[in-house]
């Protein structure tokens, strides 16, 4: 039996495609244009070819910022994914505790990024912040404005506080979708808690974990507002990630050509790493 296809649905998608083209593709073409030209103002441009890309790729400044980004993203994933799974496993599945826990988990996600940075900037100050004040009472020499280790710890803890809830909610959604028959069969077979997690819960959470890993990696790799508000990229350049360095180059130094080239390289790196994550995790899911 031959199927007839109705292509009229594309007319409903057309406004979305036009909006995406206007808000994404056109600005991207503008960035590509700037990345291959040089300007001295007065709207006068000079062809530079791939010189800006070569300069960026041979710059220690770029590679150092990229290394900080990669370290930060992998530390965030190593903390937030296991922590999110643990919290989701211990959340109630029935009763009044369910909506209470869901609301509490959703609260950090509702706070804007700049407000999160401001909260932790004040919270960590040694003179008026609760965290800095009590750490000083406990004898801990903590000062995120002067010590790079303290600055990194503050930014990491801040991100964990802000975004672990997303992993928790995704994992919880995967857990509640598991039929009770699986647990009843495991109980009859005398399966341990670890066996239930390994053979029932974890396989059912693989798809939501794929979404969680991709979302958290992309967001952590593009982090800008929170560390910029808290540390400004300091002390020194210890928390200057690619996004912060890019803004400093484009806005602070007004080097539009190198900034445009760096932004394209930045975009391609995110695209490549996200594709690697997706390919690896989906291939393992297919094998399972």
Which short descriptors sum up this protein?
2% strand, ABC transporter permease, mainly alpha, 12 helices, single chain, MetI-like, MetI-like fold, 288 residues
Distance between the termini: 35 Å
From the 3D structure, determine the CATH topology of the domain at 71-240: MetI-like fold
Strand content: under 5%
- Using only C-alpha atoms, the radius of gyration works out to 24 Å
**Strand segment tally:** 2
The CATH fourth-level homologous superfamily of the domain at 71-240: MetI-like
Secondary-structure arrangement, i.e. CATH architecture of the domain at 71-240: Orthogonal Bundle
Tell me, rounded to a whole number, the average pLDDT.
86
**CATH class annotation of the domain at 71-240:** Mainly Alpha
Q: Helix fraction?
A: over 70%
> How is the biggest beta sheet arranged?
2 strands, antiparallel
Taking strands numbered 1, 2, ... along the chain, how are they ordered across the largest sheet?
1-2
- SSE pattern, N- to C-terminal: HEEHHHHHHHHHHH
- Strand-pairing-aware structural class: mainly alpha
Low-pLDDT runs: none
> What is the number of helical segments per DSSP (H or I, 4+ residues)?
12
Principal-axis shape: globular
Task: Write a brief structural summary.
It is built from 12 helices and 2 strands, in the order αββααααααααααα. The protein is mainly alpha-helical. It has a domain at 71-240: MetI-like (MetI-like fold, Orthogonal Bundle), CATH 1.10.3720.
């Amino acid at each position: 039996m031959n199927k007839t296809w109705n292509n009229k649905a594309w007319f409903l998608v057309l406004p979305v495609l036009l909006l995406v083209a206007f808000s994404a593709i056109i600005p991207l073409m503008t960035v590509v244009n700037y990345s291959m030209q040089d300007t001295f103002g007065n709207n006068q441009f000079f062809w530079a070819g791939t010189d800006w890309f070569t300069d960026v790729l041979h710059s220690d400044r770029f590679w150092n910022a990229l290394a900080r980004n990669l370290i930060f993203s992998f530390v965030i994933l190593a903390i937030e994914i296991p922590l999110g799974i643990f919290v989701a496993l211990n959340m109630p599945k029935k009763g009044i505790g369910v909506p209470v826990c869901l609301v509490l988990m959703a609260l950090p996600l509702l706070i804007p990024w700049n407000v999160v940075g401001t909260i932790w900037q004040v919270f960590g100050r040694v003179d008026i912040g609760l965290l800095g004040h009590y750490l000083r009472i406990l004898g801990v020499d903590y000062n995120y404005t002067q010590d790079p280790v303290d600055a990194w710890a503050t930014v990491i803890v801040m991100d964990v506080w802000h975004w672990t809830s997303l992993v928790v909610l995704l994992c919880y959604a995967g857990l509640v979708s598991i039929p009770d028959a699986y647990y009843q069969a495991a109980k009859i077979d005398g399966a341990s808690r670890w066996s239930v997690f390994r053979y029932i819960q974890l396989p059912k959470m693989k798809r939501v974990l794929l979404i969680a890993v991709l979302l958290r990696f992309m967001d952590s790799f593009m982090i800008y507002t929170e560390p910029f508000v808290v540390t400004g990229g300091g002390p020194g350049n210890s928390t200057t990630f690619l996004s912060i360095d890019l803004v400093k180059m484009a806005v602070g130094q007004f080097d539009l050509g190198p900034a445009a080239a760096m932004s394209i390289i930045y975009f391609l790196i995110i695209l490549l790493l996200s594709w690697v994550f997706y390919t690896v995790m989906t291939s393992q899911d297919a094998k399972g």
